[in-house]
Design goal:
Order of helices and strands of chain B: EEEEEEEEEEE
Helix content of chain A: under 10%
Shape of chain A: globular
Oligomer: heterodimer
Number of strands of chain B: 11
Strand content of chain B: over 45%
């Protein structure tokens, strides 16, 4: 079956530090890959996505590249801000259906 | 745009009672709604998918008689936890899929409902 594995948190960084949150997946075929962000008290929001190998999704300074050879979709940001503190979920959708398979989420805390 | 609300945001109920959770798409029509359950430090687990006007499709292992889903309109779906027990305590999240804000058929998530059964 499909599955998503992401690094455990919490990840604590100082403002302006470089961020990497690792995500690897197992899926049949060619899934679409997503990163969602959940700010405190709010619903999950789509942060970025990539639908085929070597695609790079980007939004709000965050980037992730679809690496089929390593089955990975790591999230990166060059300089984090306190406002980026949230829980980040990696997810995939495969087989042409609507079902999203999520990782366990990684909490990011950014401090001054 | 693309706002999904849930009500209530948290609820405490006694064992054996039933509780209803509402999910509404506020500014778009949701052709499909999804219900997820999230345990602490675990991923969201899809419980069921519902299309407006049809019966919900439940994931394997989810009791359809215990978790009743109604998708009566293009903007409202409800999840009723019947005869709740402490093991049903969890965070329930809905999402809605439809054409919203120019984004073609993304899933938009509600803020979740914390259910505690005593």
């Amino acid at each position: 079956g499909n599955s998503v594995t992401q690094m455990e948190g919490p990840v604590t960084l100082s403002e302006e530090a470089f961020l990497t949150i690792n995500c690897t997946y197992t899926a049949t075929g060619y899934p679409s890959l997503f990163w969602y962000v959940q700010y405190p008290g709010e619903g999950l929001q789509l942060l970025l996505k990539a639908t085929k190998a070597d695609d790079k999704g980007s939004n709000k300074g965050f980037e992730a590249t679809y690496r089929k050879e390593t089955t990975s979709f790591h999230l990166e940001k060059g300089s984090v801000q306190v406002s980026d503190s949230a829980v980040y979920f990696c997810a995939l959708k495969a087989g042409g259906g609507n079902k999203l398979t999520f990782g366990t989420g990684t909490q990011l805390k950014v401090e001054l | 745009g693309a706002v999904v609300s849930q009500h209530p945001s948290w609820v405490i109920c006694k064992s054996g009672t039933s509780v209803k959770i509402e999910c509404r798409s506020l500014d778009f029509q949701a052709t499909t709604m999804f219900w997820y359950r999230q345990f602490p430090k675990q991923s969201l687990m899809l419980m069921a998918t519902s299309n407006e006007g049809s019966k919900a499709t439940y994931e394997q292992g989810v009791e359809k008689d215990k978790f009743l889903i109604n998708h009566a309109s293009l903007t409202l779906s409800t999840l009723t936890v019947t005869s709740a027990h402490p093991e049903d305590s969890s965070f329930y999240i809905c999402s809605a899929r439809g054409l919203a804000g120019g984004s073609s058929y993304e899933q938009y998530f509600g803020p979740g409902t914390r259910l505690t059964v005593t």
